[in-house]
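Q: For a teaching handout, I want to show students what a protein-ligand complex looks like in token form. Below are the inputs, and the small molecule is adenosine-5'-triphosphate. Please produce the holo structure.
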Amino acid sequence: MIEARGLVQTFHTGQGKAKKEVHAVKGVDLDVAEGEVVGFLGPNGAGKTTTLRMLTTLLKPTAGTARVAGYDVATQPVQVRRSIGYCSQVGSTFSGAYAGDEVVDHGMLYGMSRKDAVAKGQELFEKFQLDGLWKRMNKSMSGGQKRRLDIVMGLIHSPSLVFLDEPTTGLDPQARANLWEHISGLRTQEGATVFLTTHYLDEADALADRIVIIDRGEIVASDTADNLKASVSGDLVALEVAADDQVAVARDRLASLTHDVTVDGRVVSGRVSRAGKAVPGLLRDLESSGVVLDSIEVIRPTLDDVFLTLTGRSLRDADEPDAPTAGESA
Ligand SMILES: Nc1ncnc2c1ncn2[C@@H]1O[C@H](COP(=O)(O)OP(=O)(O)OP(=O)(O)O)[C@@H](O)[C@H]1O
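A: Here is the structure, written as tokens, with adenosine-5'-triphosphate included.
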């Protein structure tokens, strides 16, 4: 569905002495298969939107090639646009028009008949819990309703591939959770392939089959959330031993699974790869060695741990406004 090779975007800003090159995207390769939901994750300014704009033909790549839905973005932009749905960060609806009219007009722009556009629009309004809002203006809708309306606009012509740019930014937790359900339904109910950008770790974790991480214009990882977490640091296993004289035995048993065991009072802990598989055996081992536990905690690494290991910074640091962005050079 998406096949990008060496995509580059260099912006030129300012004039004279203030002239600057911004290397927003620096040679991105991407492959997205039909039916996949891919989360494109990265901090502010990492190059997510710029990559998305190149893939959706809104921006010409400085270098590199991309085929999207079977068409070349540079030479067949019209065919690409017909095959995809795009929901931008800023939204695509106009505040002074009825929601239903906008959706129908949008469908007609794609060559649908009014009758078909109305039928599909009404079906989508129902699916996205917008029933009753056909004759409502965008300006009198809640944030969550507006985002759902944006998605309906992007789906009116039944695209096989949908791009969502930070779909839940600015929404409250309940509206986010509600939108997540709808996004999951895009594949199951609409049969669409979904490529979404986000800087929310939990969003990528919850929605995507595969996560592609971009940092400063370069892809730094691409895998399932589980594999990314497992490959980086392992799960933290913390054993609280019931008696002081059993601490050493517990430490030795845990050391058979990992090198980095630490002891803090009666708490023995260490990082174990794929703890879900290893812990049952460890518990049997501890029991047969006569160790009694007060508690056991298994803490899975977060995608933030992954990002930290890959880039040396946490996503939160990277989010700070004064952190350096996409390789700007004078
Ligand atoms: N039109 C432009 N002219 C100059 N620089 C730009 C332009 N658009 C984006 N940039 C710069 O390119 C870099 C990547 O921006 P981009 O919007 O792709 O990041 P992003 O990962 O989508 O960030 P966010 O999460 O904040 O939306 C940033 O340094 C940004 O300032």
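A: Two things your students might notice: Residues 11, 13, 22, 24, 42, 44-50, 199, 325-326 surround adenosine-5'-triphosphate (CB under 6 Å). Confidence is low (pLDDT under 50) at residues 321-330.
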